[in-house]
Every structure is written in C-alpha cells, then in structure tokens.
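User: My collaborator sent over this chain with a note saying "see what the structure looks like." That's all I know about it. Can you take a look?
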Amino acid sequence: MDDGSFMAGFVPALSMEMEIAAPELSAPSPTPQDLACSIATLSADGYSAEEIGKALNIPMARVHRIARRKGIDLAGAAGRRRLRVELPAAHVERIAALAAVAKVTRAKMIERMIAAALEEDDSRVRRNLGKRALPKRRYTRRAKAPA
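Assistant: Without extra context I'll predict from the sequence alone. Here is the result:
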C-alpha cells in the first residue's frame, strides 16, 4: 500500500469538541453628541486637544473637528489652564500700567507676575504672602458669658 507519499496512511485525529470563541464584547462607541459633551467638559477644565484625545481615546484631529462643529473653545498649549480671577479696580489699573510699560497685554503681565512669585520654593512664597497664604477661619459666634 505504498502510494508514494510519505503521509499517505496518516489521518489526523479530529476532535469533535471544538472550542468556539465567544464574540468579543466591546463597549458601544460614543456618539458625537456624547463626545461633544465630554470635550466641552474637559475643555472647560483647561485640557488641551491632545489631552482630551488621550482621555477619550480618540485622535486629536477628531477632537478639533467636533470642537469646531459644536463651537467649543479648546485650551491653548498642553499643561496650561485658564483661570478667572476677580480683582479690585485699583489692582487692574496697576496691572494695566505695568503692562503698558512692558508693552504686553494685562493677561501676559499677570502671567509674568504669577510666574515670578512661584519661581521660589513654597516656604518663601508663603512667607511673602503672609496671612494671605493661610486658610480663612470660619466665623463662629462667641459663647455668651455666664451671668
């Protein structure tokens, strides 16, 4: 019974118990409305388009596209956060005067002032701020003196 092939009489054993792989369940992809809501929330917290893309696991180009379509303002450079500060008019005038001398915007002058204040170590910044570096105490009424 030699038909000339080396494996002629060999029949591989087939197992009737085949394992069928379960279909991989993946989370449904978020809708553009969901993404727009998430992008708006993260952008309001100051995240850049790159950081938003990493957080939502989508390409940065898609973040830009959705933000443009929905009118969402994205933060500037990565790692920078927008802050809004209420200042008295006298402080704003002084900052405006300093900015005019330096020929920069008021925002740039405030950025420079904060950077200069924070270049030093924390203990020195706290010492320079004095009481302003301490948390405000809550007002508690004095106990009435016993009569």
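A starting point for your reply to your collaborator: The chain has a mean pLDDT of 79.
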